[in-house]
Amino acid sequence: MSELTFAALGLAEPLLRAVADTGYTTPTPIQAQAIPQVLLGGDLLAAAQTGTGKTAGFTLPLLHRLMDAPAKQKGRPRALVLTPTRELAAQVEESVREYGKYLPLKSMVMFGGVGINPQIAALRKPVDILVATPGRLLDHAGQKTVDLSGVDILVLDEADRMLDMGFIHDIKKVLALLPQQRQNLLFSATFSNEIKALADKLLNQPKLVEVARPNQTNAQITQKVHLVDRDRKTELLISMIKGGDWHQVLVFTRTKHGANRLAEKLEKAGIASMAIHGNKSQGARTKALAGFKDGSLPVLVATDIAARGLDIEELPHVVNYELPNVPEDYVHRIGRTGRAGCVGEAISLVCVDELGFLRDIEKLTKQTVERFTIPGFEADPNAEPQAIEIGLGRYIHGALTPTSTPKGGSSGNNRRGGQGGRQGQGGKPRQAKPAQREGGEAQEKRAPRAAKPAGEQAAQGARKQGGQNGDARRNSNGGKPRSDNPQQPRAAGDKPRQPRQEKPRKPQGEPNGNFFHGDGPRQPTLTMHELSMGTLTGRKPPRQQNAGMQQQPRGQGQGGARQGQGGKPRQQQAALFSAPKRKP
C-alpha cells in the first residue's frame, strides 16, 4: 500500500509547492483526516496529540478555499482564526504566510500588548485571513475598525483552552458579529465530554475527528520524575543543566513570580535565562522567545502561557520545575518537545507537596511515569507536606495527605485552586467534609430542643401577641417591655435594688443655634441671625402682635411664596426671641 501524499488530499498546486519547500512529504494522521472534511465545507471538531500538525490541518484547506476570490474590501476579512495567547496567534499567522506565499492572499495578526495604531493602519487594506486574540479583536470591533460581517470560515485553535480560560463570553460576543452562515472549525489537543457538549451548541452538525485517545501523551517523549525536597529543586535543576550540558531547555513554573525568581537564580549560577509570562510586555516576550528559538538563550522559564501551541523545532528538554495543578496542562507542557517526529525528554521535579498532582496526571494519561534519582538529591521520606501558595494569599493542596492552610490564607476545596467544584472542567463539585473536632471525630448533629410545657407556651404566645400589637409598655430606656407579672419575692441574701439616679444632661444644640437643657422647658437664647448681624448688645424685644389680630400661617402673605409669579419663595428671617428669664 502506497503512502498518502498531500496531492492525494486535493490541495492546489501552489499549496503543494509551499509544503514541499518546508520539507514535508507525507501528511500526519490528523491532517489526512481533517483536510478532506474542511474542503467539503462542513463544521469540524478535531482532536489530536500536541505536535502532530493541527495548524497545517486547518491552514492548508482554509487557503485552498479562499484562493479563488481574494478580498477586495478594506478591513473585511473572509476567514477568522481565534487563539488564546499572543504567541500562538503570531505562530499561526506565520504558518499562514509560509503556506500561502504562492497565493495572492493577505493575512494579518492582531493581539494586545502592542500599539493599536499599526493594526488600524493594516486594516485599511484588504485582509483575507485575520488571526487574533479575542480581547484585541473586540477592541477593534468596538472602534469599528474591522468588519466581521464577511467572515466565511471561523477557526478556534486550542478550543478547550479558549473555553477553560474564560473566553466563552468573548467568543459569544464575537459570534454575534459574524454572519449566521459560516463554516466553524475547532482544533485542540484535548477535549472533555463537557467541552464537546458545549461545542455542539456552537457548531452545526460537526464532524468529529479524533486521531488518538484524548489526553494521550506523545510516544516520542521520554517522561521521568525525580523526587526531591522542595528547597533543593533549584540546586538540582542547575546540576542537571550543567552536568548534562543542556543547551536548550524549557522550564515550567506554576506562578509568574516563581518564574522570575527562578530565572534570577539561574542567572546568578552563570546560566543565561529569561522568564516569559503574562506580566511581561509583548516586546520582552517576543525577544525572549526569539532568542530561545535561535539558540542564543539556553533556558526559557515560562508559565503555562507557553504551554499551548508553541512550535520550537527539535526542542530536546522540557522540565516541570513545578507540576501543574490541572492535569491536562501537563500534556500540553511536555508536548513542546518531541514534535514533528523528533524525540524529546520531559523531566518533572516533584516534592512531597505535589504527589497528589502526580497521581492525578498518571490517572489522566493512564500511565506510570518512570522514577529516577540523582545521587545526592534524594528526597527526605519523613518530610511533612505543606499547602502550595499560588499568590495573593491563596493556597492549593497537592499532597496525598491532608495539609493545613497557613493563617490568613484562603484555599479551595480541590487541587485546581478555585472555590467550590472543578470550575471550567465540567466536573461535579466535591462535597464538603464535616467539621473535625480536636479528637478527630466528626461533630454530631445538634439534638433538637425539648418541647416546653403547654402553660409556658401559652404564656409566651400571649407575650408575643402583646408585643406585636404594641400593647406592651416600654421602660424609660427604650428596652424590653415591662412585665405585668407580680414581682418575685427576693431572697434573703439579695441586696435591695437602688433607685436609678438621673444624671444632669449637658446642653444640647439645635440647628438654629439655640441651646436648651433637658430638665425643663426650652429657654431660647441668642440666634444665629443675631450672631451674624452683630446684635449682641442693645437688642430690641420682638414686636408684640395685637390681641385682636390673628397670626397668618407661615408661608402665606407677604412672607410666603410668590404664588402665580413663578419666582422663588422669599427667605424667612430668623425669629428674634427675648432674653432667657432667670429663675429666682
Explain what this protein looks like in three dimensions:
The protein contains 16 helices and 19 strands. Helix content is 29%, strand content 13%. The model is unreliable at 417-448, 466-481, 509-538, 545-551 and 555-564 (pLDDT under 50). The chain has 584 residues and is an alpha/beta fold. Strands 3-4-2-5-6-1-7 form a seven-stranded parallel sheet, sandwiched between helices. It is globular, with a radius of gyration of 39 Å.
Percentage of helical residues? 25-40%
Largest sheet: 7 strands, parallel
Distance between the termini: 129 Å
Number of helices: 16
pLDDT < 50 runs, ≥5 residues = 417-448, 466-481, 509-538, 545-551, 555-564
Quickly give the structural class: alpha/beta
Report strand %.
5-15%
> Largest sheet, order of strands side by side?
3-4-2-5-6-1-7
Quick overview of this protein structure:
By secondary structure, this protein is α/β, with parallel strands linked by helices. It contains 16 helices and 19 strands. It has a 7-stranded parallel beta sheet with strand order 3-4-2-5-6-1-7, with helices on both faces. A 7-stranded parallel beta sheet has the order 10-11-9-12-13-8-14, sandwiched between helices.
List keywords for this structure.
single chain, 584 residues, 7-stranded parallel sheet, globular
